[in-house]
C-alpha cells in the first residue's frame, strides 16, 4: 500500500491489460509472465552494472532508469565526479536512501577537500604577500605557521608552501644576521670612539663602508630606526675622537730638534707640547700626573719642567693634596654601589623598568669619589641599560604597531559589546604597560592607536549609553510605582474590604517591579527600600485578613477529615465543602505558594474520603458479584433440575424445589446493576419452566380424571338404560324422583347426580 513512496519520477506502472490478458489468458498466467519479465530485466540491469567499468555517464543513466535498489547501489559505486554526484543525489533524494547517503558522503568529502585546498591557497597567497613585504616580522610568520598546521593540504600545495616557508625562514635568518652584524659594528664603532688608535682612521673607514653595505642590504627596511640613528651618532663620535686624537698626536710630536726652547720663545709654543696621552678626568680637575683637563674632557699634558722653562713668566702651581675619604664618604659609596648592584641584577633579569628606576636614583644620589674600576663598571652598566632600552623601545614600537593593527580589526569581528569594551580596555592597559617598560611611544603612533581605540569603542559606547538611558528610564518607572503605592495607601482599598482587588493590585505591582529591568546600583537600593516599605504598609490589612482566611481553610480541611465515607450523604456534603472552598478562594486569594499548599491539603483530604468510599464500593462490588454467583448457581440448579416418579411425586418435588430456590434467592443480597435484569430474567425463566412442567403434570392428571369420569358416566348411562327397560323399575324411580339427598341434584330422567362444590 506504500508503493507510491518508493515510486521514482519516470517510472511506469504495470499495465493490467498488457500481456496475456489481450490474448484471453487467465490472470494467474499474466502474473507469472510479469514476474518472469521483471526477473529478466533485473538480470539485464545487474549485468549492465557489472560492465560499467568506471563509465560514469552510463552509471548515472542506469541509476536514473533502474527500478531495482541493489542495481542502483551497485551503479552508484562508479559515480565519483561532483556534477554527477549532485545530479544523482538530487534525483534519488526522496526515493533511494542508500544511494542518496552514498552520494551525500562523497559530496561532503569533495567539498571538504575543496575547502582545505582553498585554505591552503589562501595561506600560500599570504606567504607570497609576506615574502614580497619589505618589513617582514616574525609574528606574521608565526601566525601563518599556526594557520597551516590545521590545514590538510594536497601534496603539491604543501610542497609549494614549504618552498615559500623556507624562503620566509631565510629572510628571517637574514634579518637576524643583519641586525646582529649592525649591533656588532655599532659596538666596534663605540670602542673605536672610546679608544682611538693610530690605525683608527682605517678602521673607521672600514666600518663606514660596512654600514653603507648594511643600508643597501635587502633586509635593511627591517632594521630598527634607533639602531641606525645610534650607528650614525657613533660614527660621528668616533670621527670626532679620531680627530682629537690626531690633534693630540700632532701636538705631542716636536716640530724642531729636541732642544730647550729659546729664552725669547713665546710661552704659548711651549705650553702646546704634550709628553703623552693621559687619562681623562672631570672638567677643570687635574689628573693624577699633573695634566690639566680641557673643556671637552681630553687631558692636555703639561711638562714637569714647565715652571723652569717659563722662568719668571709665571709662578709654579703648588701640588694639590690627595683627598682622603672619610667614613661618611665610604658609607655613601657603599650605598651607591649597592644601588649599582641592584641595577645590574635587574638588567640580568630583564627588568628594564626597575633598572631605569635604579639609574634615576643613582643620578640623584650624592656619593664620594669613585675608583676607576667602579666608574668603568657604572659606565658599562649604563651602556647596557641604554642598549637594552633601545631594543625594548624597538620591540615596544613593534608591539604597539601590532596592537594598532589588532584594534583596527576589532570592528570587523562582530564581538558582543561587553567583550568589545573589555578588549579595548585591555589594549589601552597594555599600551600603558609598554610605556612603563619600553618608554613613551611616538606621538603619531599614539594618535593612531587612540583613534583606532575610539573608533572600535564607538559601538560599545553607544550601546552603554543606551543601557544608561534605559536604567534612568527604569528608575523613573520605579519611582512612579512607589508613588502609585502611596496613592493606594491613601485611597485605602482595605477600608472597602475589596480584598480581591487589593490582592490583584499588589500582585500586579510586584510583577511589574520584577520586570523593571536594570537600575543604577546607587538608586536600586534606595528604590527597593522605598517600594518594600510602601508595600508592607499597603499589604498589612490584607495579610491580617489572609491569616483569618488561612484559619478558615484549615477548618474546612478538618471538616473533610471528619466526614464518614460510608454515609450516603457524604458526597453531597463534600461537594458543598468544595464549593465553599472555591467561594473563599474567589473572595480572597492567598499567596500562590500558600494557596497551593492549602489546596493540596484540601485535595488530599478529599481524595482520602473518595479513596475510602472507593474501597467500600470495591467491597460492595465484590459482595454483589458473590451474590450474582450464588443466584447464577440457583438458576443453574433450577435449569438442570430433573424429577422422577409418578405425577404426584413429581409435583411435590417441583413444589419443594421452587420453594427452596425462592428461599435461597431471597437470602442473597443485591447483585451488580448491570447484571440485575439478566439474572432476574434467567431466574424467572427457570421458575416458569418448572411451573410449566407442574402445570403440564396437573393438566395430564385432570385429563386422566376427566376420562375416568366419562367412563363412569358411560357406565351409569348404560345402567340407566338397562333399568329403563323395566317399567317397574322406572315407575319406582319416577315416584322417588322428588326425594333427593342434599348432596344430589335432580336430572331429567329423575336420577340424582352428585353436586360439585368446586366453582
In short:
It is built from 24 helices and four strands. By secondary structure, it is mostly helical.
Protein traits:
759 residues; elongated; two-stranded antiparallel sheet; disordered N terminus; 4 strands; mainly alpha; single chain
The proportion of strand residues reads under 5%
Helix content: over 70%
**Main sheet: strand order:** 1-2
Terminal Cα span: 82 Å
Using the alpha-carbon principal axes, give the shape.
elongated
Biggest sheet details: 2 strands, antiparallel
Low-confidence stretches: 1-29, 255-321, 737-743, 755-759
Number of extended strands: 4
Radius of gyration, whole Å = 65 Å
Would you tell me the overall average pLDDT?
77
Task: Output the structural class.
Answer: mainly alpha
How large is the count of helical segments?
Answer: 24
H-E string = HHHHHHHHHHHEEHHHHHHHHHHHHHEE
What's the layout of helices and strands?
Layout: H1 3-6, H2 27-50, H3 56-65, H4 69-76, H5 82-91, H6 97-132, H7 138-149, H8 155-194, H9 200-216, H10 225-252, H11 267-271, E1 292-293, E2 299-300, H12 306-310, H13 327-348, H14 352-364, H15 372-409, H16 417-438, H17 443-491, H18 499-514, H19 521-562, H20 570-587, H21 592-639, H22 647-667, H23 673-724, H24 727-735, E3 744-746, E4 752-754
Antiparallel strand pairs: 1-2, 3-4
Helix pairs in contact: 2-4, 3-4, 3-5, 4-6, 5-6, 6-7, 6-8, 8-9, 8-10, 9-10, 13-14, 13-15, 14-15, 15-16, 15-17, 16-17, 17-19, 18-19, 19-20, 19-21, 21-22, 21-23, 22-23
Amino acid at each position: 500500500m506504500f508503493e507510491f513512496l518508493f515510486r521514482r519520477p519516470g517510472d511506469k506502472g504495470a499495465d493490467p491489460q498488457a500481456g496475456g490478458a489481450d490474448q484471453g489468458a487467465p490472470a494467474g498466467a499474466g502474473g507469472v509472465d510479469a514476474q518472469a519479465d521483471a526477473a529478466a530485466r533485473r538480470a539485464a540491469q545487474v549485468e549492465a552494472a557489472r560492465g560499467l567499468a568506471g563509465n560514469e555517464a552510463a552509471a548515472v543513466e542506469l541509476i536514473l532508469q533502474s527500478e531495482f535498489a541493489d542495481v542502483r547501489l551497485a551503479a552508484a559505486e562508479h559515480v565519483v565526479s561532483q556534477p554527477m554526484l549532485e545530479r544523482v543525489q538530487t534525483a534519488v533524494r526522496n526515493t533511494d536512501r542508500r544511494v542518496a547517503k552514498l552520494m551525500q558522503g562523497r559530496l561532503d568529502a569533495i567539498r571538504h577537500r575543496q575547502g582545505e585546498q582553498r585554505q591552503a591557497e589562501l595561506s600560500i597567497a599570504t606567504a607570497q604577500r609576506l615574502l614580497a613585504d619589505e618589513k617582514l616580522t616574525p609574528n606574521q610568520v608565526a601566525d601563518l605557521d599556526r594557520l597551516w598546521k590545521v590545514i590538510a593540504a594536497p601534496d603539491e600545495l604543501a610542497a609549494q608552501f614549504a618552498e615559500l616557508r623556507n624562503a620566509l625562514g631565510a629572510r628571517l635568518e637574514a634579518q637576524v644576521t643583519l641586525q646582529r652584524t649592525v649591533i656588532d659594528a655599532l659596538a666596534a664603532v663605540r670602542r673605536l670612539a672610546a679608544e682611538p688608535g693610530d690605525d683608527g682612521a682605517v678602521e673607521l673607514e672600514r666600518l663606514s663602508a660596512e654600514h653603507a653595505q648594511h643600508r643597501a642590504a635587502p633586509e635593511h627596511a627591517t632594521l630598527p630606526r634607533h639602531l641606525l640613528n645610534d650607528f650614525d651618532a657613533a660614527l660621528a663620535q668616533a670621527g670626532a675622537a679620531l680627530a682629537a686624537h690626531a690633534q693630540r698626536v700632532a701636538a705631542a710630536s716636536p716640530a724642531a730638534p729636541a732642544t730647550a726652547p729659546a729664552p725669547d720663545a713665546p710661552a704659548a709654543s711651549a705650553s702646546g707640547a704634550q709628553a703623552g696621552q693621559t687619562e681623562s678626568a672631570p672638567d677643570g680637575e687635574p689628573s693624577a700626573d699633573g695634566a690639566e683637563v680641557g673643556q671637552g674632557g681630553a687631558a692636555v699634558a703639561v711638562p714637569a719642567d714647565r715652571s723652569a722653562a717659563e722662568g719668571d713668566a709665571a709662578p709654579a702651581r703648588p701640588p694639590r693634596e690627595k683627598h682622603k675619604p672619610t667614613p661618611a664618604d665610604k658609607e655613601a659609596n657603599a650605598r651607591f654601589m649597592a644601588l649599582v648592584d641592584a641595577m645590574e641584577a635587574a638588567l640580568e633579569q630583564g627588568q628594564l623598568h626597575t633598572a631605569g628606576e635604579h639609574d634615576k636614583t643613582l643620578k640623584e644620589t650624592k656619593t664620594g669619589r669613585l675608583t676607576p674600576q667602579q666608574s668603568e663598571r657604572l659606565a658599562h652598566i649604563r651602556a647596557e641599560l641604554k642598549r637594552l632600552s633601545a631594543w625594548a623601545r624597538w620591540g615596544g614600537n613593534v608591539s604597539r604597531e601590532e596592537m594598532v593593527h589588532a584594534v583596527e580589526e576589532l570592528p570587523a569581528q562582530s564581538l558582543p559589546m561587553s567583550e568589545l569594551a573589555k578588549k579595548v580596555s585591555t589594549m589601552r592597559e597594555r599600551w600603558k604597560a609598554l610605556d612603563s617598560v619600553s618608554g613613551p611611544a611616538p606621538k603619531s603612533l599614539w594618535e593612531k592607536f587612540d583613534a583606532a581605540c575610539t573608533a572600535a569603542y564607538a559601538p560599545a559606547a553607544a550601546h552603554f549609553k543606551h543601557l544608561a538611558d534605559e536604567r534612568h528610564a527604569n528608575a523613573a518607572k520605579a519611582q512612579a510605582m512607589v508613588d502609585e503605592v502611596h496613592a493606594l495607601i491613601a485611597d485605602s482599598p482595605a477600608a472597602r474590604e475589596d480584598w480581591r482587588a487589593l490582592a490583584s493590585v499588589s500582585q500586579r505591582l510586584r510583577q511589574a517591579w520584577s520586570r523593571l529591568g536594570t537600575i543604577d546600583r546607587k538608586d536600586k537600593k534606595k528604590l527597593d527600600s522605598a517600594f518594600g516599605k510602601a508595600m508592607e504598609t499597603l499589604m498589612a490589612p490584607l495579610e491580617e485578613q489572609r491569616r483569618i482566611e488561612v484559619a478558615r481553610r484549615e477548618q474546612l480541611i478538618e471538616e473533610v477529615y471528619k466526614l464518614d465515607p460510608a454515609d450516603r450523604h457524604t458526597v453531597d456534603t463534600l461537594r458543598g465543602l468544595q464549593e465553599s472552598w472555591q467561594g473563599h478562594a474567589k473572595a480572597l486569594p492567598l499567596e500562590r505558594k500558600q494557596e497551593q499548599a492549602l489546596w493540596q491539603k484540601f485535595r488530599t483530604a478529599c481524595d482520602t474520603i473518595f479513596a475510602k468510599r472507593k474501597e467500600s464500593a470495591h467491597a460492595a462490588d465484590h459482595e454483589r458479584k458473590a451474590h450474582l454467583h450464588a443466584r447464577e448457581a440457583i438458576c443453574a440448579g433450577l435449569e438442570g433440575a430433573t424429577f422422577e416418579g409418578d405425577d404426584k411425586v413429581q409435583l411435590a418435588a417441583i413444589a419443594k424445589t421452587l420453594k427452596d430456590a425462592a428461599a435461597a434467592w431471597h437470602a442473597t443480597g443485591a447483585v451488580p446493576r448491570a447484571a440485575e435484569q439478566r439474572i432476574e430474567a434467567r431466574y424467572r425463566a427457570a421458575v416458569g419452566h418448572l411451573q410449566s412442567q407442574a402445570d403440564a403434570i396437573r393438566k395430564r392428571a385432570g385429563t386422566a380424571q376427566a376420562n375416568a369420569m366419562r367412563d363412569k358416566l358411560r357406565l351409569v348411562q348404560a345402567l340407566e338404560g338397562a333399568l329403563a327397560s323395566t317399567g317397574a323399575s322406572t315407575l319406582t324411580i319416577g315416584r322417588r324422583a322428588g326425594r333427593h339427598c342434599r348432596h344430589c341434584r335432580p336430572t331429567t330422567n329423575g336420577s340424582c347426580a352428585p353436586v360439585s362444590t368446586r366453582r
